């Protein structure tokens, strides 16, 4: 059977730095999660147990991130013509949702413990929290460095998990100190609820960003109307419509548009000029431009209004031509 090129662009990601960072993070997180679960049960600390519950979600989140990185390396085929990059966004959405749900659980348990305070082993609680702070600080720095080298919403969602863990460790340490000096047990659930609020904020941000990508909304970094004006300024373009711009993943963008053209200008030259402008000005490398003529392609009322406007106000050609 003949080989078919289902897409002329390389819709895959080879993210070696992200893969290595996630493997290191996954192994250390899985180990320390077990330590925190045992320590939280023995010390009866909600802050410590909430942190361990969060770390369980970290293990799941990292697993999803690893699957997403693996799928991102697979090439497009006859069924998935854009490849498997979109799973990165699905994993990010699930990770953000997990953060929000865990934060709500911490908040609910915090209210219960404010009403019915429970004693805890401060020494064990403080020792495990201090070790957790060191581990989470190292893992947060590893993931932060990875995000700086290879921007990836999937890895950024995992990073937010560890920022939450780092804050949780700080909260447990502060909580243990305040309880030791004041004897007030309500510090433990109160600080846990504050940490839960911060975790929820991070999760909601990731959910929103990934949801917008899944809904194929225009990425916030682009001004669609400005792009429309720039396309309209290309020589031979008389009108731009049916324009769409969306993200396949966090750094892969696609654009499609229909343009009514001047039949005195070669349409291939118009397409070349538009695609060169999009690539040079906006970094959009995947653009599908359909050239049309209003008297040949049906446009209904839109086409009639355009022809009337042409008759009343002769259009001026743009100025952009590829070098």
UniProtKB/TrEMBL annotation:
<feature type="transmembrane region" description="Helical">
    <location>
        <begin position="128"/>
        <end position="147"/>
    </location>
</feature>
<keyword id="KW-0813">Transport</keyword>
<dbReference type="InterPro" id="IPR027470">
    <property type="entry name" value="Cation_efflux_CTD"/>
</dbReference>
<dbReference type="InterPro" id="IPR050681">
    <property type="entry name" value="CDF/SLC30A"/>
</dbReference>
<feature type="transmembrane region" description="Helical">
    <location>
        <begin position="159"/>
        <end position="180"/>
    </location>
</feature>
<keyword id="KW-0406">Ion transport</keyword>
<dbReference type="Pfam" id="PF01545">
    <property type="entry name" value="Cation_efflux"/>
</dbReference>
<keyword id="KW-0472">Membrane</keyword>
<keyword id="KW-1133">Transmembrane helix</keyword>
<feature type="transmembrane region" description="Helical">
    <location>
        <begin position="21"/>
        <end position="42"/>
    </location>
</feature>
<feature type="domain" description="Cation efflux protein cytoplasmic">
    <location>
        <begin position="220"/>
        <end position="293"/>
    </location>
</feature>
<dbReference type="InterPro" id="IPR036837">
    <property type="entry name" value="Cation_efflux_CTD_sf"/>
</dbReference>
<keyword id="KW-0812">Transmembrane</keyword>
<dbReference type="GO" id="GO:0005886">
    <property type="term" value="C:plasma membrane"/>
</dbReference>
<feature type="transmembrane region" description="Helical">
    <location>
        <begin position="186"/>
        <end position="207"/>
    </location>
</feature>
<feature type="transmembrane region" description="Helical">
    <location>
        <begin position="84"/>
        <end position="108"/>
    </location>
</feature>
<dbReference type="Pfam" id="PF16916">
    <property type="entry name" value="ZT_dimer"/>
</dbReference>
<dbReference type="GO" id="GO:0005385">
    <property type="term" value="F:zinc ion transmembrane transporter activity"/>
</dbReference>
<feature type="transmembrane region" description="Helical">
    <location>
        <begin position="54"/>
        <end position="72"/>
    </location>
</feature>
<dbReference type="InterPro" id="IPR058533">
    <property type="entry name" value="Cation_efflux_TM"/>
</dbReference>
<feature type="domain" description="Cation efflux protein transmembrane">
    <location>
        <begin position="22"/>
        <end position="215"/>
    </location>
</feature>
<dbReference type="InterPro" id="IPR002524">
    <property type="entry name" value="Cation_efflux"/>
</dbReference>
<dbReference type="InterPro" id="IPR027469">
    <property type="entry name" value="Cation_efflux_TMD_sf"/>
</dbReference>
<protein>
    <submittedName>
        <fullName>Cation transporter</fullName>
    </submittedName>
</protein>
<comment type="similarity">
    <text>Belongs to the cation diffusion facilitator (CDF) transporter (TC 2.A.4) family. SLC30A subfamily.</text>
</comment>
């Amino acid at each position: 059977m003949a080989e078919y090129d289902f897409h002329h662009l390389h819709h895959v990601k080879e993210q070696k730095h992200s893969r290595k960072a996630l493997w290191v993070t996954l192994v250390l997180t899985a180990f320390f999660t077990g330590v925190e679960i045992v320590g939280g049960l023995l010390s009866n600390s909600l802050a410590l147990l909430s942190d361990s519950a969060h770390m369980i979600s970290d293990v799941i989140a990292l697993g999803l991130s690893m699957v997403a990185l693996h799928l991102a390396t697979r090439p497009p085929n006859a069924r998935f013509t854009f490849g498997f990059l979109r799973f990165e966004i699905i994993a990010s959405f699930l990770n953000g949702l997990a953060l929000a749900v865990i934060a709500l659980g911490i908040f609910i348990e915090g209210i219960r413990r404010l009403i019915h305070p429970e004693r805890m082993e401060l020494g064990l609680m403080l020792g495990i929290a201090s070790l957790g702070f060191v581990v989470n600080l190292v893992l947060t720095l590893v993931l932060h460095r990875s995000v700086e080298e290879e921007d990836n919403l999937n890895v950024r969602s995992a990073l937010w998990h560890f920022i939450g863990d780092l804050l949780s460790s700080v909260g447990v340490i502060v909580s243990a100190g305040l309880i030791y000096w004041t004897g007030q047990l309500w510090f433990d659930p109160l600080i846990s609820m504050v940490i839960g609020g911060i975790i929820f904020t991070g999760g909601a941000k990731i959910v929103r960003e990934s949801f917008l990508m899944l809904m194929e909304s225009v990425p916030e970094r682009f001004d669609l109307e400005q792009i429309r004006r720039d396309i309209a300024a290309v020589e031979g373009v008389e009108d731009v419509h049916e324009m769409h711009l969306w993200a396949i993943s966090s750094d892969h963008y696609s654009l499609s548009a229909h343009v009514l053209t001047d039949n005195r200008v070669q349409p291939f030259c118009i397409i070349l000029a538009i695609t060169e402008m999009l690539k040079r000005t906006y970094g959009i490398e995947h653009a599908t431009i359909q050239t049309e003529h209003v008297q040949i392609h049906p446009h209904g009322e839109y086409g009639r209004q355009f022809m009337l406007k042409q008759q009343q106000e002769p259009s001026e050609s743009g100025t952009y031509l590829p070098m």
